[in-house]
Amino acid sequence: MGGKEIRLRRLLGKDGKTVITPLDHGVSCGPISGLENMKTALEKAIEGGADTVIVHKGNFKMVASLDTDVPLPGLILHISASTQLGPDFHRKVIVASVEEAVRRGADGVSVHVNLGNENEPLMIEDLGLISDACNLWQMPLLVMVYVRGLNVSQPVSDKAIAHAVRVAWELGADVIKTAPPEDTEVLKKLVSFCPVPVVIAGGGKVKDVREFLGKVSGWMDSGARGVAIGRNVFQDESPVSFLKAVCSIVHGGLSGDEAYHRYLEMRGQK
To answer: Could you tell me the residue range of the domain that residue 175 belongs to?
Structure first.
C-alpha cells in the first residue's frame, strides 16, 4: 500500500464512503453566514462527524490549535481560488502546490475545474499538472468538476455532467465531486463505470431539510460514495444535528425520512 492509499483511508470512512464538509467558501464569497467564525465552523463540522473537511491554507494553523476530544477528520487543502469581486468568477487559478499541502499536513488536495467556458483549456491544463504532482507526492486528488460559464445553457444537462465526471476521472482524480444528475438512472450508470469514488455536491442552501435529506438518500441508493455539503451544514440552524443526520444516511443507511426525524429529535423537536 502506497502513501496515496494510506491518505485516502483517512478521507473515506471505514465503509469506503465519505461525508465531506467544504469550508473553503471564504475566499470565493467572503464572510458569508455560518463562516464568519471559522473556528466555530470547524468545531461544528468535527462534532457533527464529518469524515473530511476542505479548507484553504490559512486555516491549517487554526485546525492544528483546535482543542477537541475526538480525532481530527481528514484534511484537504483546497488549492484553487477565484472571488466574486473579480472579472471572471468561473476562472479558477492555482494558489498552492501539492508540496505545500504535504508540508502543512494535508491528507489530500482539491482542485476546482469549470468546463464549458472560455477558460476551460487553462483549468484543464492546471488539472493535468496537479495530477502529476499528486502522483509524485502520493497525495490524493479531489477534483470538483462542474459545467459553468456565461455561455453554458441552464439547466446543465445530465450528459454534460457525465462528460465532466469523465474528464476528471481520465485526468487523474482519486475522488470526484460534482453536481447531481437530474435523472437518478444517469447517476447509477455514471458511477457504475467510474473507477474512483463520486461524491455529490450539496449546492446552495435549501429551505426544506426533509426534502434535501431525501435527495441525499436517493444519491446514495444510486451508488454515490458520499456527499460534499457545505452551506446546507454551516448555514443550518443546528449544523451539528444536520451533519449527524446526513452521516446517518451515508454511513448508517437510514432513509431520508428516518434521518429527518433523527434531526428533529437532536434539535429537541417532535
So the answer is: 3-266
